Amino acid sequence: VVQDTRGEFWIDHCFAFGASSASSCSGMISAALRDLWQVKGIDPIAKIEDDFVALQAPELDGSYPHTRESMLKEVEPLGFPWHTDKGTKTFVVEVVFIGFEWHIELKRVRLTLEKRIKYLFRVTDLIEFSKSHKVPRAQIESIHGTLCHVSFVYPEGKSYLPPLSNFMAVYREKEIELGKWLPTSVTSTLKWWAETLKNPDH
Fold first, then answer.
1. Taking Cα atoms as reference points, which of 164, 40, 133, 47 lies closest to residue 97?
2. What are the DSSP E strand ranges found in 12-142?
3. What would you measure as the largest C-alpha separation in the chain, in angstroms?
4. Neighbour count for residue 103 (Cβ, 10 Å)
5. Distance between CA atoms of 74 and 169, rounded to whole angstroms?
6. What is the number of alpha carbons within 13 Å of residue 168 lying toward its C-beta?
7. Under DSSP, is residue 103 helix (H, G, I), strand (E, B) or coil?
8. Overall average pLDDT of the 61-78 stretch
9. How does pLDDT run across 81-112, given as a tens digit for each residue?
10. Residue 190: half-sphere exposure toward Cβ, Cα within 13 Å
11. How far is CA 145 from CA 40, 62, 79, 119, 149, in A?
């Protein structure tokens, strides 16, 4: 879906998947959806690809200017599919968005328990694997991407990312797939992340 200079919306049938540097198909469609809501005065809406969170301040009587139902009704004719298990049915002070728990009143953000355990296992699995195997670059790229994301919640972890990015840069030709032995700096970094992710109170 594209929008022209007059505000009209059109189906883009010539360049449907966009440039490789652009957002995904679902991300571009959801961007159009957000634009439609904003035109209707439903704002602010945080969005990353096809994940949304609408932020609303309550009125003096405790009601909200918009409800989930009223928001969906505004775009119902367009036939957008909605995940039945994601999101909340009402506006709440604590919401899960992009794998983080956001507490609006406390101004706090943390990993969900599910994500923290998932990422902990990913890190510890790599540590165990690397004791007896060379590690392909794709595995380092994957864990590096995960930890970059997690660093939003663990800002002190940003200083533990360079050993991983530096190690990715030294892979040569066949090593990319066959792997390399992890240096001590990378192992130490992964151990720090494992200890940090074990802490449920972070």
1. 47
2. 45-48, 51-54, 94-97, 100-103, 108-111
3. 66
4. 13
5. 49
6. 13
7. strand
8. 86
9. 777 777 777 778 888 888 899 898 888 999 99
10. 26
11. 36, 41, 33, 11, 6
